[in-house]
Amino acid sequence: MSAVKIAERFSDLQPSLMVKVFRAAAQVEDLSNLGIGEPDFNTEPDIVDAAARAGKEGFTHYPPLPGFLDLRQEICSYWDKKYGLKSVPDEVFVTTGGIQSPFLLFQAILDPGDEVIVTEPCFVAYFQQVEYNGGRVVTVPCLEENGFNPRAEDIEKAITPRTRAIMLNSPCNPTGAVIDRVELEKIAAVVEKHDLFVVSDEIYESILFEGEHVPFATLPGMKERTMTVGGFSKSHAMTGWRIGYAIAPREILGLMQVLSIVQSFGVNSLAQKAALYALKTQEKKVMERRDIFRQRVDYALERLNAIPGISCLKPGGSFYLFPNISGTGMNSEEFTFWLLEKAKVAVIPGISFGKSGEGYVRISCAMSLKDLEKAMDRMENALKNR
Ligand SMILES: Cc1ncc(COP(=O)(O)O)c(C=O)c1O
């Protein structure tokens, strides 16, 4: 018997399906890995140098809790210049990755049994973030026939007296869908009518292929009701630095900062200085990487749509594709493990991103065109010779 007793609420916690896929994929030699949710690029060397310089200049101490003022100022001016989102440094909280702020927000706003509407398929962490903080997830499916976008009317139907917040993500992981202004305005009207709060995860805003990215907080009346999640992981290929941020009303950020004291106590000083440098200098590089992602996504899209049994919508942004594999007769888990065995190609089953992801898989275009070509050849051959 172990001396450690696991808390009741976590006692039947199992590794997620995604983890199972990664474990199985790790056993495959010469793998084509389309499962990875991060850019394949290394962080630009001059960003790394900026961190090293900061270290030598003495930025090796505890950072201010909300983040360095110069970085928060730069974040404000980035969102203002690019999207007209006006904010002041007090409305910015630098966090340990983009992932930390929704967790802290749910911790700050949820009483047991409170509900959060999560539009799905989605980044899976949201589900646990709500549940670990005593909340209940109410899902709203985003269907292929609607371009994988949430519809305001579906969101409104899911509202109950316990609803506290709505979680949006555009461009979306895993579908690449971008919610257009008209639908966002309809959602904003619902939010206003029911006096709700929105967590708008916009971490992929810089990887946009067409249309416009509309920060939810820029819609009339929404700034006071929105926490915008931003970051550097995807835009600046800085996943390993663990830095992101939230832009939100200062009252809620104040509480989140207090809660973070016992958890992370500020964000790595060198990562903050690197992020500051990145925001000031990397616009061109960010766009270059966006164009590379676009090329890869376009290529893979064409290849996928030529494979019998598979059809795929064109994503508006991100580096993901979310093909419909239901024509193969397999469900998303069966398809994933079959593909891994027969073609040595790793993808993520759509069901891992929520119930409405069944019938789809996520493909990440985080590899060179040459490697992508090899992966698509393998996939095509396996499916044709079934
Ligand atoms: C939609 C979405 N939000 C947030 C994150 C977390 O990003 P970070 O690395 O900044 O914590 C991810 C990472 O995959 C993501 O896909």
Overview in brief:
With 386 residues, the protein is of the alpha/beta class. The chain is 39% helix and 13% strand. The protein contains twelve helices and twelve strands.
Show unreliable segments.
Answer: none
In angstroms, what is the radius of gyration? 21 Å
- CATH class annotation of the largest domain: Alpha Beta
Instruction: Determine the N-to-C terminus distance.
Output: 48 Å
Helix content: 25-40%
CATH structural fold name of the largest domain = Aspartate Aminotransferase, domain 2
Would you identify the CATH architecture of the largest domain?
Answer: 3-Layer(aba) Sandwich
Q: How much of the sequence is in beta strands? A: 5-15%
Mean pLDDT: 97
Instruction: Tell me, briefly, the overall form.
Output: globular
Looking at CATH, the homologous superfamily of the largest domain is Type I PLP-dependent aspartate aminotransferase-like (Major domain)
- Bound chemical compounds: pyridoxal-5'-phosphate
Could you give the order of strands across the largest sheet? 2-8-7-6-5-3-4
| Counted beta strands | 12
Class inferred from helices and paired strands: alpha/beta
Q: Number of domains in the coordinates?
A: 2
Q: Tally the helices: what do you get?
A: 12
Descriptive notes:
The protein is α/β, with parallel strands linked by helices. The chain folds into 2 domains: 8-43 and 284-384, Aspartate Aminotransferase, domain 1, CATH 3.90.1150.10; 61-281, Aspartate Aminotransferase, domain 2. Helices cover 39% and strands 13% of the residues. It contains 12 helices and 12 strands. A 7-stranded mixed beta sheet has the order 2-8-7-6-5-3-4, with helices on both faces. It has a 3-stranded antiparallel beta sheet with strand order 9-12-11. Strands 1-10 form a two-stranded parallel ribbon. The protein is globular. Pyridoxal-5'-phosphate binds at residues 37, 97-99, 123, 169, 173, 201, 203, 231, 233, 239, 244.
